[in-house]
Amino acid sequence: MTTKLHPGMKEFNSIFKKCNHIYHEIALKLNLSDSGFDVLYALCSLGDGCLQRDICEFTLLSKQTIHSSVKKLVNEGYLSLDRVSPALQEICRRSAQTCRRDIYGLKSIFYRFKKRRSLR
Predict the structure, then answer these.
(1) Smallest Cα–Cα separation from 96: which of 38, 9, 12, 56?
(2) Which pTM was predicted?
(3) CA triple 77-27-78, angle to 5 deg
(4) What is the pLDDT of residues 38-71, one digit of tens each?
């Protein structure tokens, strides 16, 4: 069985995979798991005082995964339960900027796709 994807979905999948690859490479260079990097990224984005459920909603990871990742990050000195270190905040900011252009491009793709579907 063959499935034909809409060109917009193919482009979306390509951008999504590229962003995931970038985040994975950053995590590897920092000796972090992907979920550990996701937690730090969420903390950088959400700011101080966020709760476990906020991180779950932001990352779409389970509570158990968040708990395990936070515990490991604390044990390895990447994170204290008070705040993320300034160096890691900067890394998260830079990695967010790397994909921001592509994410804005996705909005355009979805808008065009939605507009075409509504014309049918």
Answers:
(1) 38
(2) 0.63
(3) 10
(4) 998 898 888 877 788 889 999 999 999 999 998 8
